[in-house]
Write a sequence for this structure.
């Protein structure tokens, strides 16, 4: 499966953005999806994940209550709705997919930059 992330941009603190992750090659419904982010000099960190059927969603503590992960299997697209953005949310955001129920993600998109100004 190939993943294409989009939707990043510049936003003021307190604002919102929605990231999209379009999948091609295979049906997105076959994969668990996740979002990660990375800033220069830091390791990539987990943001959120969602199971194939969207029944279970997990979030990193810093984004709980502000970010929502979702998916549209019919459109083979995943989403990350980000609200009440903070300058510390500034990062390159990556979407990822895995055919496994648990564990690491095997497929990665190219990343989309989110910049939150104070």
């Amino acid at each position: 499966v190939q993943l294409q992330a989009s939707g990043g941009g510049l936003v003021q603190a307190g604002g919102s953005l929605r990231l999209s992750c379009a999948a091609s090659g295979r049906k997105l419904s076959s994969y668990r999806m996740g979002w990660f982010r990375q800033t220069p000099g830091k390791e990539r960190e987990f943001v959120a994940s969602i199971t194939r059927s969207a029944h279970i969603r997990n979030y990193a503590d810093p984004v709980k209550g502000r970010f929502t992960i979702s998916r549209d299997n019919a459109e083979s697209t995943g989403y990350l709705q980000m609200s009440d953005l903070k300058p510390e949310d500034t990062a390159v955001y990556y979407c990822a997919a895995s055919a496994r129920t648990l564990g690491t993600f095997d497929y990665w998109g190219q990343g989309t930059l989110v910049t939150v100004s104070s």
